[in-house]
Sequence to fold (564 residues):
Amino acid sequence: MSERQTWVAQAMRLRSMAEPAAALPRVHPAVAEFRPGSYETPSFFVWTLGCQMNQSDSEEMAGQLLAVGCERAAAMESADLIVINTCAVREHAEAKVIGRQGRLAELKRANPGLRVVLTGCGVRESERSGLVKRFPAVDMFLRPDEEPELALRLGLVSAQAPVGLRSTATAATTVLSGRPVSAADNLAHNRATALAEGRIARSSNVSAWLPVVYGCDKTCTYCIVPFARGPERSRPFDEIVAEARSIAAAGARELTLLGQNVNSYGHDLPAEERFGHICTERSSGRKLDLQGRPDLAELMRTIDAIPGPAGKPAIPRLRFITSHPWDLSDRLIDVMAQLPSVCEHLHLPIQSGNDEMLRRMGRQYTVRHYRERLAKIRAAVPGIAISTDIIVGFCGESEFQFQATLGLLEELRFDTVFAAAYSPRPGTPALAMADDVPAAVKRRRLNELLARQEGVGLALNEAWLGRDVEVLVDQITPPRRRIEIDDSDAEELDMPLSAIPTLEGSAGERSVALAGRTRHNKLVHLAGDPDLVGHPVRVHIEHAGPFALRGRLVDAPDEPDALA
Ligand code: SAH
Ligand code: SF4
Ligand code: F3S
Fold:
């Protein structure tokens, strides 16, 4: 542990001993110091871009701020503190935030006490010196592994003066390929502390995120994630299970295990006698000694076994994302087939349908290998829904190679495809290759691919017509707005507005447009009482679009298992 980290850990410990989170006064003296005189309590707004891991990280940051007495603001405009949790996977994701700098500067003029903190994958050690220029409205930058220090660095936790407005101070980093990157080392420990102190503000009581492995060790040449997130670090097995138990006790109906490569969980943990029966081999990629170490399959078995009512799993829906073909082991396929709680959906990015492109992308598997894994899981879990990621227009991609990807869509028939045009990212190995597919060709290929997938997605969704499905309602559909599946530029849009149910002819007076997911991760629109949000309901599917289904509420039993 570095000197700074030791100091931080001590400050946190002393603080937690002296003033347990629950006993904190609503206005902490340090808050006044941070915002001299302007407001009694700084209210905060967290803007989260990117993947589920960012959403989970934002829950931790919000939890820290709530624990020291800050309050949530309803919108960015009314906040005293704005935390922007960035994504950097494509240039467009970063451009979104750069494009907001003018607006943020305006807000700061109107509210001189406003502070803006930028966190997430946009804060990379190797480019730290250029951050202030790119994000002029930002006061403080925190790498993903520095996020646990947010409240501390704002001076909200310790009685120390606020550190780091315009801060470029850094904690320890890891070096990857000769360059400093985020360190994932402390994240597991920090999560444990945050849990122990009740500092995680989950955005939903129904569907919970649970990070199990941080960072990425893979070799994809186009990807910035390993540089932004550092190497893979697994959380201790028992800690994850304990967190799952507390999530179950809080009444969650769905739990998603998270990792950039969630299925590589455990390879970096010590071998233990109790895991002696585990001897998995990687199905592709770099070989590792996995003997006797916990793996994702073991973790899911243990979480599935947490008892609920009538001896069924306490958490009825268990998901995991994102899996890498290197680690799609037979053990994992077995648990997907055997465990009642594990949902019938797998996200398995393929990226390209051509082996030479896969080689250049550093994916270290072949189309044949992917095909074999997919056949195996489809045989084990009949009807399983499969989603994937595809990049078009990567360095040197010929028309022939692109056509191979298109052909694969017809052959492998994915339920959902998240596709994006290749976007060169700073510091990645692919920068050594020519980004030689013209922008117009990338665009055309992307459109062609999405159009081809629409047909496949529609046909697969039509197979659900006339069936009753269990939908876990998770939102009231915002009126007259397209719904984005995520906040990246690879968003998949759901069905056209005309297909979203309206209030007319709907079930009951209080009826509104609702949406939720099936176990197969199908988005379903329905009309019903707003109180159904957070509950599993049975829906009769009456309409299928390429990206979503629409149906009629059949019943909404109190007991979710009644729908099984
Ligand atoms: N760890 C996950 C993906 C994380 S990034 C995995 O390997 O599957 C999510 C997706 O963004 C990737 O699957 C890839 O399709 C896409 N992506 C990553 N870098 C990109 C880049 N430079 N340009 C375009 N798309 C990219
Ligand atoms: Fe990026 Fe590849 Fe790691 Fe996924 S596996 S995060 S695409 S480097
Ligand atoms: Fe996620 Fe984007 Fe970072 S996809 S890991 S937030 S680069």
In short: The longest strand covers residues 468-476. The mean pLDDT is 85. Residues 152 and 487 are 28 Å apart (CA to CA).
